[in-house]
Amino acid sequence: MPAHRTRRARGTALAAVTALALAAGLTGCSDDSSPESVVSDAASAASSLASKAGDVLASATAEAGKKLDQVDNGVDVKGDVRLGKPATDSQGRTTVEVTASNTDSEKRSFAVEVDFEQSGGGLLDVVVVTVPDVAAGKTGTATARSTHKLSGDVKAYVGRALRY
User: Fold this and answer.
1) Average pLDDT of 54-65?
2) Could you give the CA distance from residue 17 to residue 120 in angstroms, rounded to a whole number?
3) What is the CB-side half-sphere exposure of residue 92 using CA atoms within 13 A?
4) Which of 14, 31, 58, 119 is such that its CA lies 20 to 30 A from the CA of 150?
5) d(CA 113, CA 91)
């Protein structure tokens, strides 16, 4: 098992407990259950929660996963998503280019969870980004941006990726 997955597993129990406490306030964000709305809600939840300290970061991870689980007819396409090299933008936040390949025969969108981690281990931030309207057989790009400034040697991993 890759080391970054092992590090994520350590926080799963804490994430689940904390997410339950916060879920009541987050699940009522929108009455619209379209995939775009669900992804937007997930991004908002992750952004809002991940900007807080460690326990809340674990909750953001759980909440992002929960929201991605709500995407209707989402197909797991983690293997069709690639991340570029993390960089720092002018505001000091970590960014990474997300490239999604649409192997389907119809135009599709992608919801991608990006996990920012320290090179030596430890989850720093979680964001959900949408790569919208990728034509059949083509690739689309978006930029994932951390919710706050990250320090040290930051690595980015695809947590989950759904095509819908």
Assistant:
1) 73
2) 26
3) 5
4) 14
5) 22
SS3 for 7-74 is HHHHCHHHHHHHHHHHHHHHCCCCCCCCHHHHHHHHHHHHHHHHCCCHHHHHHHHHHHHHHHHCCCCC
Give φ, ψ of 74 to 5 degrees: -75, 135
Q: Is the confidence at residue 11, as pLDDT, over 60?
A: no
Range in 65-79, 89-103, 113-127 the model is least confident about: 65-79
Distance of alpha carbon 110 from alpha carbon 103, whole angstroms = 12
Amino acid making up residue 71 = V
Phi-psi region of 113 (alpha: psi -120 to 50; beta: other; left: phi over 0): beta
Task: Indicate the number of domains in the chain.
Answer: 1
* pLDDT at residue 30 in the model: 41
Across the range 26-49, mean pLDDT stands at 58
Main-chain dihedrals φ then ψ at residue 79, nearest 5 degrees? -70, -15
Tell me the CA distances in angstroms from 95 to 45, 49, 72, 78, 86, one per residue in order.
18, 18, 28, 19, 6
> Token digits for 110?
């992608």
Q: What are phi and psi of 149, to 5 degrees?
A: -70, 135
